[in-house]
Amino acid sequence: MSERFTSASDLRRSYDLVIVGAGPAGLAAAATASGFGLSVLLADENGAPGGQIYRGITRSSEADRRRLGPDYAAGKKLSAAFAESAAAYTLGALVWSVAPTDEETPDADYPLEVGISLGGVARAIGAQRVLLATGAIERPFPIPGWTLPGVMSAGAAQILLKTSALAPSGRTVIAGSGPLLYLLASQLIAAGAPPVALVDTTPRKNWRVALPDFPAFAMSSYAAKGLKLLFDVAKRIRVIRNVSALEAVGGDKFETLIVTRTNGTMERIDADLLLLHQGVAPNLNLSSAAGCALEWDEKQALFRPKRDEWLESSEAGISIAGDGGGIVGAQASVIEGEIAGLVAAFRLSRISKEMFAQRGAELKKRLASVLRGRAFLDRLFRPADEFRVPQRDDAIVCRCEEVSAGRVRATAALGVQGPNQMKAFLRCGMGPCQGRLCGLTVSEMIAQARGVSPADVGYYRLRPPVKPVPLREFAAMPQSDAAITAVAGFVERSVEKGSAAGSLEPDNRIVER
Amino acid sequence: MYRRLPDRARALVRFTFDGEALTAQEGDTVAAALLAAGQLATRHTPVSRAPRAPYCMMGVCFECLVVIDGAPNRQGCLTPVVEGMRVETQQGAAVFEDAE
Q1: pLDDT band at B97; cut points 50, 70, 90
Q2: How far is A82 from chain B (nearest CA, A)?
Q3: CA distance linking residue A95 with residue A11, whole number of Å
Q4: CA of A272: which chain B residue's CA is closest?
Q5: What pLDDT, on the 0 to 100 scale, is given for residue B98?
Q6: What CA–CA distance (Å, rounded) separates A282 from A297?
Q7: How much is the average pLDDT of A386-391?
Q8: Which whole-number Å values give the CA distances from A254 to A145, A500, B53, in the listed order?
Q9: What band does A496 get if pLDDT is binned at 50, 70 and 90?
């Protein structure tokens, strides 16, 4: 049985493998690696295991699973297998950094340290290896008015349905592109809350681009399921296609979606709630802050960490599995998690080379089979250029610092070379979300202005802590004498050896230099 | 804007939002409980004081920052509601009560 911890001070000093993220990849990796005898810590920030796709699965009722469909219900088995494993886990934990072990840490027999805040206590936990399974985030969707209250991401509505059985009560419009849009529409229909319209922004030309990949898709498990979903939704609710622009308008909250079609006609759709979605992208914040090299994926128009064929990043000892390494979906993420668990066991000499080779080949075969048909989806649902790079100057790009597309464009025209220089001019990406909601947009806007690929522009340089941690937690972290000397130049300690630490009366202390 | 589906019944949890008494269901996050109670805006931005409401519900966008039991900058979508919790709108940048 896995054991749950609620304070970082109760964790072990180090583990063989620290996994970040309890979604499909993290759960599978934890069960696999602990099955091979590794000591495993799985750290997750949510209140229950499952990640976003299986959010709330451990507490779901039969009614929830019926409403959310068989792909959601599949998470029940995975979370049960994890619960049976020997892995330690933490919920509500904030992992703020992954880095090589500080040279000031004496006698450390582990190469990596993971900064974890849990229960109001921060600790640097040692690790032989780290697996980042931080999943995906929804792509930015920077249309004018997307910051209005009453505009949310489609994933947000799904999370409310999964965790709190909350369904939209008024008129809802769903807009964007990608499989999740239609899945959410069908789930809202099942919940008795059908949207008034689904505005599909998938560019018509994508069908032509994706066509060569259709045969492989037609043979995959997605095909029948996906096509049925499309038809079922189109039968029940109004679908608007061939869209060239969207604008959300309202006063203190969203009131109307203005849809412009490619033929120039406009339509106003009054609603209470607008749900936006145009695909997902790897959540890069922790991998990038850990120093993992990134690469631009032109086919999906996103950055992802570089990985080798065994899912190892550019940084020694750090692997990345699941959507956090490149968008593959839940089924493939589970297999990637198993591969990462196997690789960790092999690297730490818990299994033989023969066993690694045999199991590895089996897993890779399964992965290839599950990924068949993926290329078609990637090409079909690549979001349109005009929805990745805002056309209107008044669209907000950086939500935190309220930086508009017009300002980013004007500043890019001055010759700004990359997103880090753009920060210095406009503060974009410097608010609390640390670029999660604007990073892709800013990189693509600079690339467009420079007439180069986003590969040449790069992404925000991200640094730990990847999320805000109270300063008092950092201040209270235990420090070695060497670390204190490195900063302060000396260590204060009591003259009487063996006396209680902390009794630092001015008269009986010495200063060591 | 959101309603609870009739097949979900969990223990009720009482909390306040800007002094108003509200109820949530056990297992709700602060952001979910506020949406269920018909509250939309959770903060006003530091730059233009524009109202903002939960956007992503998964800890990514930081739009649902609220003050919880006096502590500012808390992510409402990652914090479970507990009995007696005092939640307030965050106005602009965080103000720390014990700051000099």
Answers
A1: low
A2: 21
A3: 14
A4: B1
A5: 58
A6: 11
A7: 96
A8: 8, 62, 11
A9: low
